[in-house]
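Researcher: We plan to redesign the surface later, but first we want a full-length starting point. Tokens attached.
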């Protein structure tokens, strides 16, 4: 078994992918850019969760993103469940 296969098996064994429709809003964790802030928004274009600080930066154009793609995690969760 090569090292890539061994690594894949190890990661696959320890982590289960969860579809957004099967997750709860609380499962989105902390922001990558601001580890002290919980993720509250979901970017439909990039499929990533963001905190309120990142969402404000996106809305003000400080970060390359279309602010129209941001929705709350609760809204994303409800859309995925329906």
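Model: Full-length starting sequence:
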């Amino acid at each position: 078994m090569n090292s890539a296969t061994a690594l894949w098996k190890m990661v696959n064994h320890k982590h289960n992918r969860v579809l957004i429709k099967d997750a709860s809003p609380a499962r989105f964790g902390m922001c990558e850019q601001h580890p002290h802030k919980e993720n509250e928004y979901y970017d439909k274009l990039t499929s990533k969760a963001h905190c309120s600080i990142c969402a404000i930066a996106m809305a003000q154009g400080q970060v390359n993103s279309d602010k129209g793609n941001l929705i709350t995690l609760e809204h994303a969760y409800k859309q995925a469940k329906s």
